[in-house]
Amino acid sequence: MRKAWRWCAAAGIVAFTVSSLFARIPGLVACGPTGGLEPIIAFELARTTADVATLFGAEPCTSTLVAAQKTGLLLDGLGFIPSYTAFLILGAIAAGARGRVRQLALALFLSAALSDEIEGFLLGAILDRLPGTPALLHGLWWAVHVKFGLLALGTIQIGAILCNTSWRRRIAAGIMIVGGLFAFFGLVAPSAGTMMQGFLIAWVALLLTALVASFWPRVFSTDS
């Protein structure tokens, strides 16, 4: 399992590094109120064409934000989605997923990644014809909610797999499960801030677990 944890840690470091790059995209500043959300998340969670129009405001801010969002979509599709998907799949494997449980984890995370890529396609289509259409926003709603829902369930599953005999595993597992539940609650509430905090807590816990298990495998071994 040590090798699996190391690969999980490596993928996690890449995912968190790529995630940090979104904040460095030039011009990624909302042109209107976002309810306290980052521009990318506000765009993902837009429900109506009026929401999109508010976010992108008027020129010259509109063109700047459109260009920044397109850069974000490129970074997301080519960097963040593949890296976080690998991170979570490897986390499930390293935690001890076997047989049908492993197949379920793979299905959850690969389906979430596919939904995320579909989301990116729909966001790109909206950017090309601002403020989009009701049909595009309807499709976006489904892609976003399927993605986040599957990621929350998959995150909870990793915690459940990790939760066995060792009290140290149970601590890490409990944090992941609680984070996943917060993420799922935030999705259905809806509360985007709660959802994102839930994912952050759970995924940081998984990354720290992977790092510790990479160097001290007995800490999270199934025999301890």
From TrEMBL:
Keywords: Membrane, Signal, Transmembrane, Transmembrane helix. The chain crosses the membrane at residues 78-97, 104-127, 139-164, 171-189, 195-216. Residues 1-23 form the signal peptide. It comes from the Bacteria. This is DUF4386 domain-containing protein.
